[in-house]
Amino acid sequence: MADAQHENNSGSPATGPAKTGESFVRHANLMSKLTFLSRISGLLRDKTCSYFLGVGTTWSAFWIGFQFPNLFRRIFGEGALTAVFLPVYTRVRTESGQEAATSLAGTVLKLLSLVLLTIVLAGEAVVVPIALSHSVLPQNRLAAAMVAIMLPYCIAICATALLAAMASAHERFTAQSLTPIIANGAMILGAAVPVMILTRHYPLQSRIVWVAAAVVASGAVQLGIMLLSVRRGGVHLSGGRRIFDTAHKDVVIPAVRQITRRMAPMIAGLSAVQLNTFLDSQIAWWFSPDGHGGHVHFYLFGRLMHAAMPAGALGKLSVAQRIYLLPVGIFGVATATALFPQLSRAAVKGNMDEVKHLTRAAMRKSLFLSLPAAVGMIIIAHLLISVIYLGGRVNAADVNRAVWAARWFCAGIWAFELQMILVRVFYSLDDAITPMKVAAGMVLLNITLNLILIWPMQEGGIAASTSISAAIQCLLLLLILRRRIGPLGIRALRFDVLKTAVTTAAMAVAAVGLDRLLRQIPLLSDRHGLIAAAIRLPLVLLAAVVVFTAVARLLKISELRQAPVINRFAGR
Question: What is residue 139's predicted lDDT score, i.e. its pLDDT?
Answer without folding.
Answer: 87
